[in-house]
Amino acid sequence: MDTFTDSGTLSGPTVLRPGDAGYEEETPGFQLAFDQRPDLVVPAARPEDVAAAVRYAAGRGLRVGVHATGHGLPGARRGGLLVTTRRLDRLTVDPVARTVRVGAGVRWGAVVAAAAPHGLAPLNGSAPSVGVVGYTPGGGLGLLAREFGWAADHVRSLDVVTADGRLRHVTAETEPDLYWGLLGGGPGLGVVIGLETALVPVRTLTAARSPTTGGWWTRRPCCAPGPSGHGPCRPA
Q1: Domain that includes residue 183, residue range
Q2: 129, 86 Cβ separation under 8 angstroms
Q3: Quick one: which of 68, 110, 112 has its CA closest to 88?
Q4: What is the 3-state secondary structure (H, E, C) of 56-109?
Q5: Torsion angle in degrees (nearest 10) through CA of 162, 158, 41, 62
Q6: Taking the complete model, does pTM exceed 0.85, yes or no?
Q7: Is residue 160 in some structural domain?
Q8: 120, 200 contact by CB (below 8 A)
Q9: Mean pLDDT across the stretch 157-175?
């Protein structure tokens, strides 16, 4: 086990190599069909760790992969540097603004539990173990999509480390090209380490499966559509 800075000196975030204690526990994700064997693993404990890892990799021509829960396809299967972000698990709900701020390690189950006491809900998918940051920028078509639309359309801001190792707070107003590129543009623009997104007013969610078609339907008696005819909605 080592640590590094941009210059390669032994200081800064922890670095794991094959054979180090913790390496085998840090590399697997949900997708066990893919055996990841990166040369270096950085278990990021803070945003600055991610930035240092990206700068280190850029200076040495290393490919960078990222995962929190590992539900998506891995980036660094053989060689390169893998940043794990599950420890970036800060979560803050603002019930007045109806928003939530999350780090890259937060899973949807935690957001549902934090928002529910306020009569609010996130636009999550069907699995509570999926990470918010891994899910949302790709679009996010979940259980409430028929009423509220894509999860990505409700993102207010993103915190990202770009390829130059800079930490940037991105909104549609401050950096529109990067903002819209991150929301649906696919990987390669940077490492998203956190985001702020809207919550919607949902107090009751009932789900049932059709015995004839096998399909699912949902019923949400707490909300009526907003003035535009779709989400965000106003209380019924």
Answers
A1: 91-201
A2: no
A3: 68
A4: HHHHHCCCEEEECCCCCCCCCCECCEEEECCCCCCEEEECCCCEEEEECCCEHH
A5: -20
A6: no
A7: yes
A8: yes
A9: 96
Q: Are residues 108 and 69 in the same domain?
A: no
Distances (CA, A) of 230 to 76, 123, 154, 195, 199: 40, 14, 12, 23, 14
Q: Which two tokens stand for residue 204?
A: 């009751």
Does 206 fall in a domain? Answer: no
One-letter amino acid for residue 88 of the chain: L
- pLDDT for 50 equals 95
**pLDDT (0 to 100) of residue 213:** 63
Rounded CA-CA distance 177/78 in Å is 32
Within a 10 A sphere around the Cβ of 134, how many other Cβ atoms? Answer: 22
Mean pLDDT of the chain: 83
Please check whether residue 60 lies inside any domain of the structure: yes
**Best CA proximity match to 119, nearest among 200, 197, 207, 224:** 200
Distances (CA, A) of 231 to 166, 217, 235: 34, 18, 11
What is the structure's pLDDT at 143? 84
* 128 within some domain: yes
Whether residue 110 is found in the same domain as residue 188:
yes
Q: Which amino acid is at 154?
A: H
Locate tokens 């707070």: which residue? 169
